[in-house]
Predict the structure.
Amino acid sequence: MDRIIAVMKKEFFRFFHDKRMLFSSVLLPGVMIYVMYSIIGQAGASQRNVEDDYQTVAYGINVPASLQPAFESMNIQFETDITDIVEMKQKVEDKEVDLILAFSQDFDAQVAVYDSMTATQPAPQVEVFYNSSRTESSKAYAAVTSVLSQYESSMINKFDVNGNTDNKYDLASDKDSTAQLFSMLFPMLLLTFVFSGCMALAPEAIAGEKERGTITTILVTPIRQTELAIGKIVSLSVMSILSAISSFIATVLSLPKLIQGDGVDNISANVYSVTDYLVIFFVLISSVIVIISVISIISAYAKSVKEAGTLVTPLMIIVMLIGLTAMFDGAAKSEIYWYFIPLFNSVQSMLQVFSFDIHIVPVIVTIVSNIVYGGIFAVVLAKMFQSERIMYSK
Amino acid sequence: MLEVRNLKKTFKLSKKQQKISKTKDKIKVAVADVSFQAERGEILGILGANGAGKTTTLRMLASILKPEAGQVLFEGKDIYQDLSAYRKRIGFLTSELKLEEFFTPNYLFDFFAKLYDMSQEETQERKQKLFEKFGIDQFAEVKVADLSTGMKQKVSLVISIVNDPDVIIFDEPTNGLDIITEKIVVDFLLELREQGKCIIISTHIFSLIEKICDRVVMIIDGKAVKEDSLENIMAGQSLEDSFFTIYQEMGGNMNG
Ligand SMILES: Nc1ncnc2c1ncn2[C@@H]1O[C@H](COP(=O)(O)OP(=O)(O)OP(=O)(O)O)[C@@H](O)[C@H]1O
Ligand SMILES: [Mg+2]
């Protein structure tokens, strides 16, 4: 036991005193996630936002008097130099003018006499030209067409759809919108960050020891291989969990920034309870144990830190793919056997939490089976430390 | 004190290794038959060319490779009877060892002392003694990365005898060292002999053996072909001359 603690202490000492390592494995992922999400959110927001007092510049052709007040209230400023339609279209294309509103002549009068049941001629026309690559133009287009279709339906009003403006017709709650976004993204993001944390630590701690020959010096002492394996895996797991927590916190903190520009107001990380976060936390810990022990095994097999890195990279892609499965399913699997598959079970359990559908048995199966896998892998690692072929291969 | 009987060790070769060493054999005999005896207060030199099987032999002595045949006896008992007890009494230094650059000599000493189950007082006492003797004390809190090559080597040597072992096994202790560092190592070994330790070193450097060894084991192609005192082996010639005489007698191939 003392030897296990000595091995662990040495790893921790290094971890907490090596500023570069601490920075690259704990601080950097967190800071990067936060900055990345914030920038993406900011960019999205500024792209989609139009200044509140923006004046839409438009050409109006035969604009009927009945609609003038509505357009004025929408802050549309009509140009006076009506010219050839081709020239005007060019101006819109060049983004100098936002809209062209072209009504047929005597629009109001024609509309008044027109009856769709008996008409032999086409209905009076309104054409609205706009430029979707200019945000102001698209916004104005959307506003104008909605005013026009309201105007149209008010004239032939036979029934209303969702006419009561005081009612909230979209019944998606905060919870549901959040659930959708989180359950799609988070399992993959969390697994990836956890993995990269592990990847920053284990190859150095195990393949590095082999490369330097220090593992021989350790193994000629009375330490047992299992003690060394357990000491390494436990300490590496704890460090990777710290790294995972940093990524997790950064994600939760920056999420509001990420989605602020999306026009989605009803998303917040607050809809999850402490229990939800705890379940995520424990599922993450169990995943860390699986990931770190697998990377440790690969590192013990490799002859150098560099080789370990090369061997681990394909695994990272597999883990990301496992994380991606959350996007396709949408809902967590209900059959219990899925929860025995390492890492896939973590994704499924996280899906349950994010979609507010926690079932305790699968979550426990996930956590326990991952820990058991970690234990098995620790035994494998100890066997590898014992193997002459692996430790002293040429 | 240490008796080696008919050690044998073979390695299975992978396809890649077969290609590299241009052989169709699936098995490489690294050590075919090595026997010798080493006593307290003497330095035994294992002399052999590259690939003769020196490192493999020493690793079997250090109990990190298991012999395929033969035995290593420590004080008359097979070392695998009580491996942990044996390991507490040996020190092993490989030529490839590079200490972890991040740590200080002080930290590494304490770490290895813990792996040997040494008490705090015991550790402090021994550390002070060794650090003082080898002039490491001023550098005890300097990271290995910032130490000179000579100082690094001294720290490696000290770390390998943290547990005050009775048997000390050094693989190519002066390999690749400059003349000053080499002198440090030689003095270190002589000092340990003075203390009555049983020291076994491997080398292909004749002058090192002539300078410090009491007895010599010659290994050719995995076989111990001669074990005798340095004087008897040299028999009036230089060690180099007598080595090549024996080498040719044994059918060694000088063309590689
Ligand atoms: N793990 C291994 N797998 C395959 N062959 C090996 C292995 N270890 C050693 N050998 C081979 O066994 C032979 C003896 O190797 P060993 O390292 O013991 O020689 P050595 O005397 O220490 O040589 P050197 O002077 O190069 O250090 C060499 O031919 C080597 O290639
Ligand atoms: Mg060698």
In short: Chain B has a mean pLDDT of 90. The interface with chain A takes residues 11-12, 17, 59, 62-66, 83-84, 87-88, 90-94, 96-100, 102-103, 107, 111-112, 114-117, 159-160, 163 of chain B (CB under 8 Å). The CA atoms of residues 34 and 229 of chain B lie 17 Å apart.
